[in-house]
Fold:
Amino acid sequence: MKKNQSAITICFTNNKGGSGKSTSCANLGYELSAAGKKVLLVDGDMQLNLSLSFFDEEKVLEMAESEKNLYQAVRNKRNLSNYIVPSPYENLDLIPSSILMSQIEYELFLMMQREFILKKCMEEIRNNGQYDYILIDAPPTLGTWVINILCASDYVIVPVEASPWGLFGLANMFDFLNHLRDMTEAEIMGVLVTKVDERKNYYRQTREILDQYREIHVFDSFIHVDASIEWAQDASKPVTVYKKSTRSATEFKKLAEEVMGYGSR
Structure:
């Protein structure tokens, strides 16, 4: 892990939808906070799924339509410290998203040094010691906004669904990251395999394909298909809060342990 006093910033990204990106970001964030780490979650997706993981729909829409969300901060180039919303859980805060994030590519196009706007907005909260980790949920695209998120991050976690189409476009994702080497120092922390059903062969096939990328770390932890995850999402709660005994709760806790130990392998 990087040896500095600034918050460790990790983005979750995959240009394919349905990879479990928001779910993994939300539950990892909660497990890190439950382990005593100070965590800030940043909802960078217009679908609002990360925000919905902790607040009901009425509250999320209220925040999305207010002046206190990520879209307003970025378009006005404001310090993100003023846009933080406490979550219902200790050590865990959120910067909510807005459906207006659909316009962020246009907003950025009109700005100088457009790839680094988010990085500048995050500078104070990364360096003031308030947080140990900042986790950013990126949308399933490869545009200027995702470049912004990558330029503001130290590490990247790529969730991949264990399904016939789960690896579709992954090579493009890796190529995209390689092409940004002159802009960002963000490195791939690992690929997280999600939605695993061991009654099928997709997990084994997925691991075999990922093993071909010898320079890419694949987390030992993986996340099974678990109905409790969907029920927890419906209740706007982390899965551990919804049902601590469920298998996925244990898996997200193990993932948090891997992330906290990253660099000491």
